[in-house]
Each structure stands twice: as C-alpha cells, then as structure tokens.
Amino acid sequence: MEFRDLKKQYQVLKDQIDExxxxxxxxxxxISGPEVKELEKELADxxxxxxxxxxxNGTDALTLALKAWGIGKGNAVFVPDFTFFSSxxxxxxxxxxxxFVDVDERTYNxxxxxxxxxxxxxxxxxxxxxxxxxxxxxxxLPADYDAIKPICEKxxxxxxxxxxxxxxxxxxxxxxxxxxxxxTTSFFPAKPLGCYGDGGAIFTDxxxxxALLRSYAVHGKAGDDKxxxxxxxxxxxxxxxxxAILQIKLKAFKDxxxxxxxxxxxxxxxxxRVAGLDKKIVVPVFMDGYTSSWAQYTIQLPExxxxxxxxxxxxxxxxPSMVYYMxxxxxxxxxxxTDSAIADCPVTEKLCKTVLSLPLHPYMxxxxxxxxxxxxxxxx
Length: 380
Description:
about 375 residues, alpha/beta, 7-stranded mixed beta sheet, 3-stranded antiparallel beta sheet, 14 strands
C-alpha cells in the first residue's frame, strides 16, 4: 500500500503526461517555455486571482512574498506553532522574528483568539513591529479566514496564506490561495497538486507586488531584461517540463481528484465510526462551508497509546503511516536561544505527541480503507 499513490496516478495519466513531456523535449524550451505561462494562467483562473507567478518550490514562494513586502530585522511575523518548518524558516531567514501561535485542536489551523493575544503582547512589549500573519492551510483545510482576516485588518497586518498543503480547498465557495494579500503553494510530489520534482507558485491581485515577485524570482531583473539586475533576488523558476506535467495533473485535479479524495476521507470517518473507534480516537472534522483538499488524513490517538509501536504494527501489515509533526516550531533547534523559542502553545505540544497520518489519495479503494481501519483497531 502506498501512502500517497503517485504510481497509480501516473498509470491513469501516463499517455497524456508522456505526450506533454515529449513535446517539451522536442521543442527544447526547457526554461520558461510556453507551458509555464499557460499554466500560470490556468492556475490563476482556477484560484480566482489576477496574478500567478510560478517558482522553484514552495519555500521560495514564501521567501519571495516576504521580499516583495520588505520584511526583515525588527519585524514580527506570526506563525502557527504546528506546521512545517519552512513557514517559520522563511521569515527568520529574512531577519524577522517569528512569534509562534497555538492552533485549534480540531482543525490544526491557527487559533484566531490566540493570534490576537499574541499581537497585543508583541505590541505591548514594543521590541518588534508586527508586520505579517502567516496562515497555514494545514492538511488541506483552509484556515479560519472569517476570523483571521478581520484581525489582520484591525492591526494593519499583511496576510500571507501558506497554501502549500491547501491548494484545492475551499471556504464559502472561494478557493484556497485566494485569501491572503499574497498566497503561496507547493507542487512537491506528495502535495494535493504535485509535479515530478520541486515546484511552487505565488498568487496575488496586486499588480505592484506581482511585478516585484517576478523580478525577485529571476535574480532581481528589471522587467524582462534578465541581464539588468536592479535588486538582489533568487534563481527560482519552474521548469517547463514540470509545468507541462502540472497542466495534465491540474485537469484531473479539477475534474475528479478533489471529489474522489473527499470520498475516501468520508469513507475513513464512517469506517472508524462503524468500528467504534470514533470515541477512542479523534478523526478529522468536516466543517460547514469548508472543503478540504486532504493533503493528509490525520487522526489523534489517546495519549496512552504507544504511537511508535502502532506504526511498527501497521508497517508489518504493509500500511505506511507518518507523523506530521513531531516537534513544535518553537522547540526547533534553529530557534533555540532566540525570542521565538518563547511560546505558550499547549495544544501544539499535545498534538505533536498524538497525531498520526494514514494513507490517503484519490485512487484509494474502499476495501483498502477498511483494511487500514481494521488494523488500527487491532492495535488500540
């Protein structure tokens, strides 16, 4: 059993992908070929924003957004404590100070009440200037933008939507990556929409920021002249072959993959209910007004369960599992002995000890879900 069955997906899309890749090879436009611009338009149209700028990966996407805003030393950037490292790594690498904020125990996303408390604390202390809120759409579910956006407006903060796991999710019919002043995503292979290597994209409605993002992504170029460099930037482009692959995968994603992966997630919840485990473990929540793109199907185990032992038992049955994430951001070694290490995030600390992600993908069959649930039940 595959955790995220990219092999099966390729077999389904093989003829179309192979033809697209062969066309790129025949044309030999490997960098900034026409497929890149075509994909950017398709992505912008899908998300519902004016500009999409592709780049080399999701981490670069975050960095480019922060550069476009001039974020740096003396600035406070508010980041969920329960997330992948790059959400905090990128602001810190620009010289800003991350203020880690606890998350909601059921959605895993930024707790809006805790966010406002953290903003007020930083303003009162006066050591850093609050500038940006990084809201992560964790595991495929959009963050609580109904609550987060008014807070950003109230305190005049920029909202950076980290949609690396959220692409394809929805809130009130609006697509993930449309909620931030700037939004980013990742096309890492295992993401909801992934390529066959690294890739990322940035979304915004702001013309000035879009121009800056394109400049910073190619060595700080001036307009279309890559040999006239007016600022220090990055070398961060999406390869043409990856763009071509994403064009095929985006169509499948829109046509049926989001729908099918939601069907599988619903099947998991029902199987856990029938097995009588929904009272022992915490299953993912389906929220009114929200659609998840299900980057992960994550349960919470009782604290009395030996998670590592359960994982080993599942592995013996051919069932892979993963832990996202084992350590809070504020306890990461990179932030040791900094102000970022000071955080009150008990929910995150509990989640890091109890979460477990199970196999999930759009091509998963009901019998496989039943098998996974049976084996979890045998070991709880």
